[in-house]
Specification:
The protein has 260 residues and is of the alpha+beta class. The chain has one domain: Deoxyribonuclease I, Chain A. Helices cover 25% and strands 26% of the residues. A hairpin with a 4-residue loop joins strand 6 and strand 7. Helix 3 runs parallel beside helix 5. The longest helix is centred in the middle third of the chain and has 21 residues. 43% of the residues are buried.
Length: 260
C-alpha cells in the first residue's frame, strides 16, 4: 500500500497538478494539507472520477486538510482533540479495514509558529502537546498508524541547506525540535530517514530567492509510523520532480510503501 503526503498549497489553484500527480504516482492513500478550501468547495467530483474517495476538513482561505483513498474509510475524525475552542482546520484521521487489522492514517498541518514572539509560537507548541497526547492514546491501541503531513519542523541541521539561515525561526527553534523528538521518542519512526540518511533530502523550497534551482530546501513534511506500521515499511522516497512542474506548490509529495 502506497501512502503519500503533500502540502498542495491551494487545491483549486493546483487541481491540474494534483490530478497529474495522482495518475503518475498512483497512491492508495493521499494526505493533503493547505487545501485552502471549504468542504463544499473542494473539487470532489474530479477526484472521485479518478477512483478516489474524498474526506476533507476545510476552512475558507487557508489551512484545511484532506484524505483521498482508493478504499472508503470505516471511520473519519476531524479536528485534533484537546481544545474545543480551536477552529483551525489542521487535522483529519481516517480508519481503514485491512485483512489483518485496521490502518489509521492522519493528515496533519502543524502550525508554522512565526513570529516566535507572538501567540502563534505558543499555539504551535500547544498544538504539538495535543498531538503527543493523541499519539499516546493511539499507540496504546497497538495498531498500524501513520501520522502524515506538513509538520513545519526541521528535525535536524542536516534537514536544511544552511542551519544558520533558520536560527531563530519557529521551524528550527529548540522548543519545536524538542517537541518533535519527544513525539518520535514515544515510539514513532521517521519513515524517510529510516531508509535515506543522505543530506540535501528536502521536501520544501521557498518561491523566493531562487531556492528551487539552488536546491536551498528544508525537510518539513514527514510520515511518522507506529511500531506496527514501521514493521511493514518497505520503502520511502521524496517525489522531488513535482517541484519543477508548472505552477508548483512549494512542497513536494513524500511517499511510503507498507506491506498489507
Amino acid at each position: 500500500m502506497k501512502i503519500a503526503t503533500w502540502n498542495i498549497n491551494g487545491v483549486k489553484a493546483r487541481i491540474d497538478n494534483l490530478q497529474a500527480w495522482l495518475r503518475e504516482s498512483e497512491p492508495d492513500i493521499a494526505c493533503l494539507q493547505e487545501i485552502k478550501s471549504v468542504d463544499e468547495g473542494f473539487p470532489r467530483l474530479e477526484l472521485e472520477a479518478m477512483g478516489y474517495h474524498v474526506e476533507t476538513h476545510g476552512q475558507k482561505g487557508f489551512n484545511g486538510v484532506a484524505i483521498l483513498s482508493r478504499q472508503s474509510p470505516d471511520e473519519v475524525n476531524r479536528g485534533l482533540p484537546g481544545d474545543d475552542s480551536d477552529e483551525q482546520a489542521r487535522f483529519i484521521e481516517a480508519v481503514f479495514s485491512t485483512p489483518q487489522s485496521v490502518l489509521r492514517v492522519v493528515s496533519l498541518y502543524l502550525p508554522n509558529g512565526n513570529p516566535v514572539d507572538t501567540e502563534k509560537f505558543s499555539y504551535k507548541l500547544g498544538w504539538m502537546e495535543r498531538l503527543k497526547a493523541f499519539t499516546r492514546e493511539r499507540l496504546a491501541l497497538e495498531e498500524p498508524l501513520v501520522l502524515a503531513g506538513d509538520y513545519n519542523v526541521i528535525p535536524e541541521p542536516v534537514d536544511c541547506h544552511d542551519p544558520r539561515v533558520w536560527e531563530g525561526d519557529a521551524l528550527f527553534r529548540p522548543e519545536s525540535r524538542k517537541a518533535f523528538r519527544e513525539l518520535e521518542n514515544m515510539g514513532l519512526t521517521d519513515a524517510l530517514r529510516t531508509v535515506n540518511d543522505r543530506p540535501e533530502t528536502y521536501t520544501f523550497w521557498d518561491y523566493q530567492a531562487g531556492a528551487w534551482p539552488k536546491n536551498n530546501g528544508i525537510r518539513i513534511d514527514h510520515l511518522m509510523l507506529s511500531p506496527e506500521a514501521a514493521d511493514r515499511l518497505q520503502s520511502a522516497h521524496v517525489e522531488k520532480h513535482v517541484r519543477g512542474w508548472e505552477k508548483p506548490s512549494d512542497h513536494v509529495p513524500v511517499a511510503v510503501s507498507l506491506a498489507f
